[in-house]
Amino acid sequence: MTPTELKSEHQVAERPEFGILFGRLRDRISTLRTLYDAGPLEIDFRAIGDRAAAVRLVRCEMQRTDVDRLSSRTGQRHPLGGFVGEAEYEGELGEFVPYLRLGKSVGVGRQTVWGEGRNHHGACIIKELPSYISH
Predict the structure, then answer these.
(1) Distances 31 to 25, 28, 40, 102 between C-alpha atoms, Å
(2) How big is the chain by its Cα radius of gyration, in Å?
(3) Per-residue confidence at 5, pLDDT binned at 50, 70, 90?
(4) Residues 79-115: pLDDT tens digits?
(5) d(CA 80, CA 74)
(6) How far apart are CA 88 and CA 85, in angstroms?
(7) Which residues, other chains included, contact 30 with Cβ-Cβ below 8 Å and sequence gap of 6+?
(8) What is the Cα–Cα distance from 48 to 43, expressed in whole angstroms?
(9) pLDDT value of residue 102
């Protein structure tokens, strides 16, 4: 995973709680659809956000990393840091799997345009998925 920084209520989140992670991912996908496709996601944002908040973070092995990028235009350094590591979630995850899979391509969190928030090995470890959902 590249460094990922998630914000919640105008502050950097200390841990990737699933509700926060999913909320940022849902908003990113909806924005990209608005800009490049058929418009925003046609879902009940509040209801799906409430269901995401019920998913539990059961293991979090994250470390903060600080990375900078150098602007070739201005010569200034810009922080791109965030957390890296693994998180494990439990709960009713089935409806979120398509979003998590898409998140591997579009990224999540701050600085995604600079390649941050990308997950190379899966968006999370998903335990006990219903048999009709494949990994």
Answers:
(1) 10, 5, 6, 13
(2) 15
(3) confident
(4) 777 888 888 999 999 999 999 888 888 877 765 554 5
(5) 16
(6) 10
(7) 40, 41, 45
(8) 8
(9) 87
Tell me the whole-structure pTM to 2 decimals: 0.75
Question: What is the rounded CA–CA span in Å between residue 65 and residue 80?
Answer: 9
Residue type, 83: F
Q: What is the DSSP letter of 117?
A: T
Segments of 48-90 assigned E as strands: 56-65, 68-70, 77-79, 82-90
Structure tokens at 33: 């659809």
Angle at 132 between CA 131 and CA 135, to 5 degrees: 80
The class that CATH gives domain 7-126 is alpha beta
Strands 125-126 and 82-90 turn out to be parallel
